[in-house]
User: Which sequence fits this backbone?
């Protein structure tokens, strides 16, 4: 299904925001830990996007679960973390450009927003967090992403990590949640007492929009969701489906569903852009500092659209994410992660040599968690098989 916004039925485009609200291509947020000369024709944030695209951790997203593991999916058309990331990047880039924000920064943040996820999606993250909790630690995919881009990636002779700009590193940390300064002194450089720029705030909404519509498509395609039941239970879906039936009376139901999801995506994106513009205009914000010190985050959907989105998401939780088919996969994921974590913390000599060298600095539990988090679904399944064969 083509869920692009190329043929969207927009009403009027949103009014561009005051230029002072956009993060400029020059300034404090373009600073790098290791200073580098400016590129003759690529802005700092464009360079960051390129570095993320070429990172090994980014490539591994192709083998990581979005909703379905390879064992659960009935076709090779279901989204991976990589394809989901590319869809988020499209939404964020277009919204930022329409609002007059820094589209390059928004795109870089979208490309990196899921780079810290472990295998098996949220089930894998939950299992890894539980395993670490026994050692007084935890797993947070945003903070793990920061460690990936500042330390784990090794592509450059002059420094470890990707040496991304401060603006992108701040967005990695803060695009989807706010961290308390007292609880995270290691994040002091990222303005924890302020909200992030609008480019970063857009990413969380772009993520929600992308996976809401995509998960309906993948769930219907896998046969876990029933089209008739979705139409009866999700008014947001039903309204657009009825319009599609009137417009294309002889079309197959699956094509009508595709048209429906495209229009849902368009409606969500359009609402996001107009509501952000409206919020900024109502508050008369003109500078980035005003966005940072606002009473709450500015990027959001309108009340009416948020209600539609929330109801559709509740349906997905009840009938897809918590379905018996996926619950079985979640249980398997938790068992794999828990068992391998225990085996490798119990005998660190089983770890690869390059990971064992980190134990002195990071400790055994964190080192093992880092090793597991970097795996694709297929890789950890292979490790699981080898572990069972040697027991």
Assistant:
């Amino acid at each position: 299904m083509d869920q692009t916004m190329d043929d969207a039925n927009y009403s009027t485009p949103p009014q561009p925001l005051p230029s002072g609200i956009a993060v400029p291509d020059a300034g404090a947020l373009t600073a790098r830990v290791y200073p580098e000369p400016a590129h003759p024709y690529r802005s700092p944030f464009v360079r960051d996007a390129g570095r993320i695209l070429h990172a090994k951790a980014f490539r591994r997203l192709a083998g990581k679960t979005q909703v379905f593991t390879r064992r659960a999916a009935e076709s090779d058309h279901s989204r991976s973390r990589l394809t989901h990331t590319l869809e988020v990047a499209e939404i964020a880039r277009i919204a930022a450009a329409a609002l007059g924000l820094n589209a390059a920064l928004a795109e870089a943040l979208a490309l990196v927003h899921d780079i810290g996820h472990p295998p098996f999606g949220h089930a894998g993250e939950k299992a890894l967090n539980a395993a670490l909790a026994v050692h007084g630690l935890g797993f947070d995919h945003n903070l793990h992403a920061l460690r990936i881009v500042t330390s784990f990636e090794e592509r450059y002779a002059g420094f470890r990590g990707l040496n991304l700009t401060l603006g992108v590193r701040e967005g990695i940390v803060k695009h989807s949640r706010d961290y308390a300064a007292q609880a995270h002194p290691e994040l002091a450089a990222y303005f924890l007492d302020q909200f992030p720029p609008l480019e970063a705030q857009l990413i969380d909404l772009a993520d929600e929009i992308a996976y809401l519509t995509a998960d309906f498509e993948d769930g219907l395609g896998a046969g876990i969701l029933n089209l008739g039941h979705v139409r009866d239970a999700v008014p947001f879906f039903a309204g657009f489906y009825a319009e599609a039936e009137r417009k294309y009376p002889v079309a197959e139901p699956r094509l009508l569903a595709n048209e429906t999801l495209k229009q849902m995506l368009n409606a969500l994106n359009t609402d996001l852009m107009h509501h952000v513009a409206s919020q900024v205009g109502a508050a008369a914000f003109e500078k980035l500092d005003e966005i940072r010190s606002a009473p709450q985050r500015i990027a959001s959907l309108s009340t009416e659209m948020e209600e539609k989105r929330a109801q559709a998401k509740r349906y997905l939780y009840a009938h897809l994410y918590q379905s018996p088919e996926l619950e079985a996969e979640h249980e398997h994921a938790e068992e794999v992660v828990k068992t391998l974590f225990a085996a490798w913390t119990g005998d660190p000599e089983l770890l690869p040599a390059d990971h064992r060298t980190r134990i002195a600095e990071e400790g055994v539990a964190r080192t093992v968690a880092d090793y597991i988090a970097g795996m694709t679904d297929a890789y950890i399944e292979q490790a699981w098989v080898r572990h069972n064969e040697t027991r």
Observations:
- The longest helix spans residues 253-283.
